[in-house]
Amino acid sequence: MTREPIKTVIPAAGLGTRFLPATKAMPKEMLPVVDKPAIQYVVEEAVAAGSDDVLVVVGRNKNALANHFDRVTELEHTLERKGDASKLEKVMAASRLADIHFVRQGDPLGLGHAVLRARKHVGDETFAVLLGDDLIDARDVLLSRMIDVSRAESATVIALMEVEPSQIHLYGCAAVEETGEPDVVKVKYLVEKPAASDAPSNLAVIGRYVLKPEIFDVLEETGPGKGGEIQLTDALEALAADEQIAGPVLGVVFRGRRYDTGDRLDYLKSNLLLALDRDDLGAELGPWLKELAGQL
Ligand code: UTP
User: Fold this and answer.
1) pLDDT tops 90 at residue 137
2) Whose CA is nearest to atom 9 of ligand 1?
3) Peptide bond into 21 cis (omega under 30)
4) 16 C-alpha vs ligand 1 centroid, how far in Å?
5) What is the percentage of the chain residues whose pLDDT exceeds 90?
6) What pLDDT does residue 2 have?
7) What atom of ligand 1 comes closest to residue 230's alpha carbon?
8) Rounded Cα–Cα distance for residues 72 and 70 (Å)
9) 284: CA distance to ligand 1 center in Å?
10) What is the CATH number of the domain that holds 203?
């Protein structure tokens, strides 16, 4: 199905403190997952869902990100001379993906503040926000479904995923009502990182959003929340509490493969899982992991 392309915003201006010192001079979105920076998977996902315009919100380490999506003629010429077509293709892929723009977030005042920095570029349109912490397997559908639901219902759409009750304290959690669609719920309210005993569901908010432009006015009015940061969740909460502002907030429940790269242990697991699936690495890595497991 062809759909009108929408703009994508990728906030990448966080401090990435959980990965220090690796993130001292490089944003965490540039950490390699197998052999590609996390952000490249995210841009590929946006493009696959029909987005042709990507805005990256950058912080103090802008250059690494900008360079990655630029041409590197010297390297291209060297690989060309050597006749290494496969490596040349890998180098050029990132610069050909989409029309990529950058905007600065001077101070990392929070995810909501980062999204607000996109206002001018996005204009009066529905847009997608994708976080580099969550990688969605390219074989599974999420973003395009969210865009379709947003269009059909004129709704703000967030991605949700069922997690073990013991894990819900790590996420934003959605209190929901069923709709007629098995993978779509209506969000009544959101609770940030609740204890399992207080959680209204086991549906965790993951890093994909399809937002309507009304979110910008709400973000302008949103003061610092948890951690002193301007939180996107607080603005979504305001939308869910008052449908008059921008229609309903719906959740698409994702049941596919997600790789969490937000903290070190999950990052290591994600690398192994994705490498195991790769033709060039899996065949050797699998037996080696089995052998290693036998020794533990
Ligand atoms: P996180 O809270 O996971 O990122 O923000 P962080 O603060 O960089 O990480 P830690 O906890 O210190 O390790 C979620 C997303 O929002 C972006 C981050 O880059 C990340 O993609 N973000 C966060 C911004 O762009 N600006 C901010 O002010 C805060």
Assistant:
1) yes
2) 16
3) yes
4) 6
5) 82
6) 59
7) 28
8) 6
9) 35
10) 3.90.550.10
Q: How many residues does the chain have?
A: 296
Give residue 242's domain range: 7-262
Q: Over 90: is that where the pLDDT of 60 sits?
A: no
DSSP 170: G
Quick: pLDDT tens for 83-132: 888 888 888 888 888 889 999 999 999 999 999 999 999 999 999 999 98
Among 8, 62, 130, 133, the mutation site with the greatest number of ligand 1 atoms within 8 A of its Cβ is 133
What whole-number distance in Å separates Cα of residue 131 and Cα of residue 108? 15
| Alpha-carbon gap, residue 247 to 21, rounded angstroms | 43
Residue 284 lies in a domain: no
Q: Does residue 213 fall inside a structural domain?
A: yes
Distance from C-alpha of 142 to C-alpha of 208, rounded to nearest angstrom? 9
Mean pLDDT of the chain: 94
Residue range 243-256: mean pLDDT, rounded: 97
DSSP state, residue 16: -
What total number of domains does the chain contain?
Answer: 1
| Cα-based distances in Å from 34 to 94, 268, 273 | 15, 10, 10
Question: Which atom of ligand 1 sits closest to the CA of residue 13?
Answer: 25
Residue with CA nearest ligand 1 atom 5:
14
12 C-beta closer than 6 A to ligand 1: yes
Distance 203 CA to ligand 1 centre (A): 21
Q: How far apart are CA 263 and CA 26, in angstroms?
A: 16
CA distances from 204 to 10, 82, 157, 174 (A): 20, 48, 14, 7
3-state helix, strand, coil in the chain (%, to 5): 45, 25, 35
